[in-house]
Every structure is written in structure tokens, then in C-alpha cells.
Specification:
The protein is 40% helix and 26% strand. The protein is of the alpha+beta class. The model has no long low-confidence stretch (mean pLDDT 93).
């Protein structure tokens, strides 16, 4: 998660990045005309709303960072190491 803004009387806003290692993986996650990413976002939004019991606006980005899973510094920077 990159950003979370709680907004009284409005939907909370969550911005998140999905990291992949190759441009071809990015294309697979996004899917034709963005359909796959939209489906991922819809499912995630429903789960998040159920968890926090509030409506949310979920903004997802897919970004490429080569070999991020093998680099200790990248893992730490992404909050995974």
C-alpha cells in the first residue's frame, strides 16, 4: 500500500502498487483493455471494505522493477524484507 487517506463522510482512498519483474508480467496483470486489473481491484476492494467496514476507493498501479524479488534492498524498500 502506497497511501491511505481516511475521509469522514466519504470513501476512504487507498493507493497501491502491484510490482512485477517483467513488462510481459505487467501486461498479464493488466489484461486486455484493463479487464484483469479491474477484476483484481474489484475483488480486493470488496475484501478491504468487509475488513474495515467502510467504503473505499481503491487505485491500483502495476509497475515493473526487474529482479526485485532477488534484491535485499528492493525487498526492504517495498516493506517485504
Amino acid at each position: 500500500m502506497d497511501d491511505f487517506k481516511e475521509q469522514e463522510g466519504r470513501k476512504d482512498v487507498i493507493r497501491a502498487t502491484i510490482w512485477v519483474e517483467k513488462p510481459s508480467q505487467k501486461a498479464m496483470v493488466i489484461g486486455a483493455q484493463g479487464r484483469k486489473l479491474k477484476a483484481i481491484g474489484s475483488m480486493a476492494r470488496k475484501d478491504i471494505e468487509q475488513l474495515i467496514e467502510r467504503p473505499v476507493f481503491l487505485e491500483l498501479w502495476v509497475k515493473v522493477r526487474e529482479k526485485w524479488r532477488r534484491k535485499e534492498g528492493d525487498l526492504r524498500e517495498l516493506g517485504l524484507g
